[in-house]
Structure formats: C-alpha cells, structure tokens
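Contributing new records

If you add data, match the layout below exactly. Sequence lines come first and carry their own label; structure lines follow with theirs. Keep one chain per record. Anything else will be rejected by the validation script.
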Amino acid sequence: MGVRRKRVGKAGQPPTVLLVEPRADDLERTRMLLGEAGFRVVPVTRFDAAVPLFEVIRPDAVLLAAQAPDYAAMQVARRLKQLSRGSVPLLYLVDSSDAGAYQHCLEKGQCVDVAPRAGSGAELTVKLHAQLRLKAAVLRAASGEEEETALALHDPVTGLYNRPFLLALLGLEVRRCERYGGTFSVVAAEVSGWSALRKDAGRGMAERLLVYSAVALGQTVREADAVARVGESQFAVMLPGTPAEAVPVMLSRVTARFESARFQVDGRVVRTSLALGAVSFPDTVGTPHQLLNAAQQEMRRTREFRRLAGAMARVSV
C-alpha cells in the first residue's frame, strides 16, 4: 500500500527525519545535531527495519548511511522511492574521507543527494532544510486553490514546470542560500535536431520528441530537482544542494541516458541527444534570469566547442 502524502513540517511540529545509521556512535552524534537544528529524529541501526518504520511514521525526510562493501542504503532508497513516489527527500550519509563511497553514490545512487557523515553537521542541516522547503514550496504551488493556478505552473506540451515557475523557484533558492548558506546548480539543455524534425515530420511529431525527452530527463534527475521547459526545444533543471564539482557526474548521467534512448518516426529510429551547460551558485551569482541565461550561454559554448572539435576531427581524417 502506498504512503499517503503529508505536508512537510506541519505548523507547530518539527519535521520528522528517519535516520538509518548502523554505527552507534555516529547515530547518536547525528541525532543530536539534527535535534539541535530543530528536527525530530527517529533513529534506527538496521536497514531491514527502515521500510516498515517508514510506513508507520511517514517521515518528512530520510537519511541513509552509505558505505562499502554492500551499500545496503541504495536498496532501501530504491524501495522508499517506490513507496513515496518521490515525495519524500532522501540523503545518503557518506564519510568525508571516503572518496570511493562518495563517487559510488553519485554514479549509482539512483539520483539521491549526498551529505557528509562527520563534521559540524552544518552542510547536512542546510541540505535538509533546502530540500524540505523546496518540496513544500512546490507542493503548495502545484496544489493551488483553483485548477487554473496549478495549470499555470506547467508547460502544456510536456507537463513539466514552465519558465516563469522555474524562475520563481530559483529566486527562492537564491534567497535561501544567501540566508542560510549552501549551494545549488542550474543546468540548461537543448534537444538536438528538433527544428529539423519539425520541418521534416511536422510539429506533432516534434512535440512527441519533446515529451519523450522530458520523460527521459525526468527519470534521470533526483526527486528534489525541478525540471522545466524554458523554450521551444530547451529545458532547464535546478539542482538544490549540488556544488559545481558534482555537476559533471549528473551531466554524464543525462548524456548516457539520451545516448541509449530511441525515438521512432515512421518506423525508423531517431537518435536523440542533448546539448548541456551548467552554472553553480555562489560561483555564479545574479538574478534568476541571469543564472538561467548563464547556464544557456554555457550550453551554447559547449555545443560550439563540440561542433568545432568534430569538424577538426573530420578534417584530420
């Protein structure tokens, strides 16, 4: 039976965090840090107890300690994502000194964000607050009092968020990071060959490619990320809590997803690809419009560089 969706941090109640940590000392330390930060913590040391407990307490967020060799946290994360339908933010806790575990979680962690297991706990609490507040803002806006309010937030073709709503979310995230600290990234993407397909096969088929691309993109990012259509053949993704050094892994994951994708037109397979570019806050600062424009400019620079590199390769042959 699916988990009922509940509001994040009901009025007068602290948000509940399910903490799954097999190390007793780390469990107590993290519990105390989160308690001091205003969270209600439900601690458990066994991964096999996480799912039954999740269904009983219906937490607002879940923290899963991830470590070699079995990375049991990833199996639990997969099940929790199915139960919650992506409505509950998840975070892996990884030892700061364990670069292998950090990379493993980024590459194979089903798009779940990563936070340090040790230290002051500042980064962990910032990421938790950011994900919970973003989720609450999205749910409040998407469930507007009138149907027209909710529809106004979405692109009618792909069902993704539209450009104005993404800019509003970016504004919220900028103010949140300026006040509490933290980082986020913005990725711009454009479907290659969309204009040519529209000319050859018609607008209906071109819009099918957009829907197909939107689904593939949505399946690749994390549940805390916000995906929007921002132009005829352009998309953008806001990645809360994602620093610049983590962006290349996300971009490579998206690229690989589209390289393996197959879109059929009149019985023939059309290979799709995305031109990608990204910027990260606070490395890049500005208004939401400026941040989105900077990501799009980076996308165009990357696309031009690859075009020139391909031309030079053909000439050398």
